[in-house]
């Protein structure tokens, strides 16, 4: 399927860049996107992202700006914040952070001083760089201590987390991460945070859409602060939000602006408002539950084909595969699957003996394919393609990869992606 020409003004002004955009549209249309942090946004979100709101500077907050002419911008920002508060049931929402990492950095600025101890899940165990990992600014400016998962189950051992927290007495405890296939027990983390005197930060960037759609428990009754991106399962633009109890609202707002940022990206704020409106619809609840159903069905199909999955499966949108038993490194498999039209990312697995840039695992997820309308009935086919692709990666069979790519393109043509041009 060849997509029609779009972006006429861009094509006339900068045909080289327009060609690259068109090529990316074609690639997203033809391939099976299994990276769990990616998704398709709606045409409405795309349109909001490209409005004349781009032209306006708006340092400060609604009603308290440093530039005039904010009559409409203030309403846009208030609309986005009010929708976030209503959707997630929080006291306060700041929709200005540029992305997830700056949002997390604002949390440090609000509650900690350089050199303070902070606690988060270790990056190789499924955590995020900004949870105090050593190569991140958060690990260089603060003293990061990390918890992990059990070697035998791949699950968090809360007795170990509690012992570590009571020993180290961190200012912040982060829960959440980037490669966690199981439900996060926010209540257990909250109890440990209370006992150790820490501020609990729930980083729900990956699962915000599942929470909004009722397919994952909410951290709101338990966490002091909630950090999230607005893309991934929430299907919004590349942005972020910080949500909190009212007692922390001033500290959060001051940390974002003027602490870290200047003027917010108003066009992104508008697109966040649209995404939150979409997430409040009954159809989004169906979507969130379908994401989980598809992930579980895909996990079952992969297990039936002899794949080893970290923690034995999934409760959410994400599956982490250890390819050691398949005798294929994760990076080799990921690049071969990419040639087969199946887009994944190589990823470390807990206690991985290989290096991070050449790990044992592959991370996959179901948000994007669910947005296209694929159901649990399609997951055995997806698992078969992955199995054939990994085998071809091991044997160097490029013809097999080409055959899979043709099959993938045929199925994708039957399920057009939201937001992409159509005939």
UniProtKB/TrEMBL annotation:
Q: What is this protein called?
A: Serine hydroxymethyltransferase
Give site residues, Plays an important role in substrate specificity.
231
- Tell me the superkingdom of the source: Bacteria
Entry's InterPro entries? PyrdxlP-dep_Trfase (IPR015424), PyrdxlP-dep_Trfase_major (IPR015421), PyrdxlP-dep_Trfase_small (IPR015422), Ser_HO-MeTrfase (IPR001085), Ser_HO-MeTrfase-like (IPR049943), Ser_HO-MeTrfase_PLP_BS (IPR019798), SHMT-like_dom (IPR039429)
Q: What class of enzyme is it?
A: transferase
Binding, (6S)-5,6,7,8-tetrahydrofolate: 123, 127-129, 246
Where is it located? Cytoplasm
Catalysed reactions, as listed in the record:
(6R)-5,10-methylene-5,6,7,8-tetrahydrofolate + glycine + H2O = (6S)-5,6,7,8-tetrahydrofolate + L-serine
PROSITE patterns on file: SHMT (PS00096)
Chief location category: cytoplasm
């Amino acid at each position: 399927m060849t997509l029609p020409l779009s972006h006429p003004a861009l094509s006339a002004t900068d045909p080289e860049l327009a060609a690259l955009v068109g090529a990316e549209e074609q690639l997203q249309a033809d391939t099976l996107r299994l990276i769990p942090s990616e998704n398709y946004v709606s045409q409405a979100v795309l349109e909001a992202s490209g409005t004349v709101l781009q032209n306006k500077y708006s340092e400060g907050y609604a009603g308290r700006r440093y530039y005039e002419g904010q009559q409409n911008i203030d309403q846009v920002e208030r609309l986005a914040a009010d929708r976030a508060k209503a959707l997630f049931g929080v006291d306060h929402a700041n929709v200005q952070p540029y992305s997830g990492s700056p949002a997390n950095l604002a949390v440090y600025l609000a509650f900690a001083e350089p050199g303070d101890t902070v606690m988060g899940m270790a990056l190789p165990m499924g955590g995020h760089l900004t949870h105090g990992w050593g190569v991140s600014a958060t690990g260089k400016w603060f003293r990061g201590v990390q918890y992990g998962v059990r070697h035998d189950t791949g699950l968090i051992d809360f007795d170990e987390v509690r012992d570590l927290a009571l020993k180290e007495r961190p200012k912040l405890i982060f829960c959440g991460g980037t490669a966690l296939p199981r439900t996060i027990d926010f209540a257990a983390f909250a109890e440990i945070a209370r006992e150790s005197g820490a501020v609990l930060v729930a980083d729900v960037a990956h699962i915000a859409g599942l929470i909004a759609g009722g397919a994952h428990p909410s951290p709101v009754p338990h966490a002091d602060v909630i950090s999230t991106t607005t893309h991934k399962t929430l299907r919004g633009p590349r942005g972020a939000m910080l949500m909190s109890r009212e007692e922390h609202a001033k500290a959060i707002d001051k940390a974002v602006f003027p602490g870290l940022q200047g003027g917010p990206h108003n066009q992104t704020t508008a697109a966040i408002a649209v995404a939150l409106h979409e997430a409040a619809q009954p159809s989004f609840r169906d979507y969130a539950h379908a994401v989980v159903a598809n992930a579980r069905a895909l996990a079952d199909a992969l297990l039936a084909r002899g794949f080893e999955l970290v923690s034995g499966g999934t409760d959410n949108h994400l599956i982490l595969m250890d390819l050691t038993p398949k005798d294929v490194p994760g990076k080799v498999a990921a690049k071969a699957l990419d040639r087969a039209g199946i887009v994944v990312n190589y990823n470390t697995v807990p206690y991985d003996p290989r290096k991070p840039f050449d790990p044992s695992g592959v991370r996959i997820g179901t948000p994007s394919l669910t947005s296209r309308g694929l159901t649990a009935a399609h997951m055995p086919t997806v698992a078969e393609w992955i199995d054939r692709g990994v085998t071809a990666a091991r044997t160097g069979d490029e013809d097999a990869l080409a055959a899979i790519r043709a099959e993938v393109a045929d199925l994708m043509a039957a399920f057009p992606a939201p937001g992409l041009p159509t005939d």
